[in-house]
Amino acid sequence: MSQSLLAFILFALASSISPGPTNLLILAHGARQGLRASLAPLLAACAAAASIVWLVGLGLGEALMRHPLAQQAMSWAGVLWLSWLAWRMLRSAGQPLQRIDSKPLGAISAASLQVVNPKVWMMAIAVIGVFAAPSLPVWQLSLMFLLIAIPCMAVWALLGVGSTRWLQTPGRLLWFNRSLAALLLISAWAAVLS
Fold first, then answer.
1. Is 136 helix (H, G, I), strand (E, B) or coil?
2. What is the pTM of this model?
3. How far apart are CA 83 and CA 2, in angstroms?
4. What are the φ/ψ torsions at residue 136 (nearest 5 degrees)?
5. Which region, left, alpha or beta, applies to residue 84 given φ > 0 means left and ψ of -120 to 50 means alpha?
6. I need a surface site. Which of 76, 97, 100, 137 has the fewest CB within 10 A?
C-alpha cells in the first residue's frame, strides 16, 4: 500500500467518523427508527458524499471556487435547513421514542443534505487537491471514500440504536434530543461562520 493511499484512507476515516450534521441526524434516526430504517438514508448520504468527491474531481470544485455567491447560497441553504431540523428535534425533545409515529429521515433528504453541507464540499475539495494523482484517479478516490464512509456512518446509527433502551426514561430522552439539537445547530453554524 502506497503512503498516499494510506494517508487518503486515514483522511477519509477521520472525515467520515467525526461528528457532523449528517452523522448526528443518523444517530437520532437510529434511536427513533432503528437500524433497518436507517440504512436507506445512511447509504444515500454516503453515496451523495462520494458523488460530490467525484464531481469535484471532474472540475465542479473549480467552478464553485470561481463563484463565491454560489458557495454562499449553498452554505446558507444548508444552515437554514439544518437549523429547521434542529428546531424540529428540539420541539419533539420530550416525546417518547415511537418508531411508527415519528417522521423518518428519508434517503432523498439525507442525500440532499450532503449537497448543501459545506463540510462535505470542503472535504471533497481537500481530497481532490491533496490526493488525486495518476496513481489515485478520481473514480478510485470516490469509490474508496464510499466504502469507508458507509461503516463509519453505520457506527453512528448503531450508537443511536444502542441508546434506545437508555432513552426510555423521559429525562434522558429530553436531555439527548436537546443535546443533539444544540450540536446540530453548532455544527451547522460553525461551518458557515468559519
1. strand
2. 0.80
3. 41
4. -130, 80
5. alpha
6. 100
